[in-house]
Amino acid sequence: MIRVPEVRLVGDNVEVGVYRTEDAQRMADDQGLDLVEISPNAVPPVCRIIDYNKFLYEKKKKEKEMKANAHKSEVKEIRFTPNTDDHDFDFKAKHAEKFLKEGNKVKTYVQFKGRAIMFKERGELILLKFAERLAEVGALEGMPTMEGKRMIAIFAPKSAKKKPSGGGEKAEKAERPERPERAERPERIERPAPSPAAQSGGGTTTQVTPQGRPPINIQYKNRPIVPAQQAQAPAPSDNPAPSENKSEESSN
Question: Cα angle at 150 between 97 and 130, to 5 degrees?
């Protein structure tokens, strides 16, 4: 039973506000429901007009779901001896990494039997080496301690780091500088074929210039200018043909 003078009503079937407790109880009776206090520590306490049995059922259902989703941490034990070789050490280290990644604690101990109790330093070295091996996935809760004929060390799992969301990847892509655009290559200027005079070794040459500029004629001092017709005329032969008079004399 609610014993405070005023309550705050919330819900879909009422107007949210502060009411006298008698008025809130009368509104619940009119709807055939119950006045349930859902937040007693608030000032004034928060109430809702609902079916009390339904409220209890939903509350138990939520608690059951929370227990099912909660991971029960277990303590896994791994045993060593002072004479554990490297193969066994690596094999047990892999198992310990698996347990720690699953969220379980790992209790490791070195068992001493008989005269092996004299080699406590060797057992401590094994446990410290084991702690160095598991440094990425687990943390050593304390230095190794002796309990009877066992030297014990307990490892707790490290909290998993959250992966960056998709927005972070987009931000990284946006931060990358864009590649500069390549400059366009200038167009190649086709040179005209050389004139016959230039091929025959004339004294004047024409230099080809880019488009929009007049050509430049270059004349050399020691080279005479040879006309094109003269350059194309055939050169005289070394053996001239015999004259007609000589041919007639030879016939007589």
Answer: 25
Q: Share the mean pLDDT of the chain.
A: 75
- In Å, how far are 29, 159, 163 from 71, measured between CA atoms? 43, 14, 21
Distance CA 85, CA 78 (A): 15
The number of distinct structural domains making up the chain is 2
- Residue 232 and residue 229: Cα distance in Å, rounded? 5
Kindly state the tokens that stand for 157: 């799992």
The CATH number assigned to the domain holding 14 equals: 3.10.20.80
Res 191 pLDDT > 70? no
Those residues whose C-beta lies under 8 Å from the C-beta of residue 183, and which sit 6 or more positions away, are none
Q: What is the mean pLDDT of residues 153-174?
A: 60
pTM above 0.70, yes or no: no
Cβ contact 92:78 at 8 Å: yes
